[in-house]
Design a protein that fits this description.
Number of helices: 5
Shape: globular
Strand content: 5-15%
Largest sheet: 2 strands, parallel
Length: about 100
């Protein structure tokens, strides 16, 4: 999530909705709780970046309710490092079209 937030800010994106199927991650970022470990450090960094980009939010979306996110998660297994798709992967194209209707 930290990498995704950093990337969108560096690319100048605004009004971004970050979606995760990990409820505890969304809650940790959206709360003011602190954790005294590496995860806590990442949450503080995420919150700091989100406060500089006021129009961005982190939402919890159950995987079963979000076929697109699930598809992206499956496709991402083929990329060992962060990857930005400028063209929709063939596997995801039909999922996206079906979600629109």
């Amino acid at each position: 999530m930290l990498e995704a937030i950093n990337t969108t800010i560096s690319l100048g994106f605004h009004n971004v909705m970050f979606e995760t199927d990990i409820k505890s991650l969304a809650e940790a970022i959206n709360s003011s709780s602190t954790f005294h470990n590496e995860l806590g450090d990442h949450m503080v960094q995420c919150r700091g970046l989100l406060t500089t980009n006021f129009d961005s939010v982190v939402l919890f979306i159950p995987r079963q309710a979000n076929k697109i996110a699930h598809g992206i998660a499956r496709v991402s297994l083929f990329h060992p490092s962060p990857h930005i798709y400028y063209i929709v992967p063939h596997d995801l194209y039909y999922i996206i079209i079906n979600e629109m209707y």
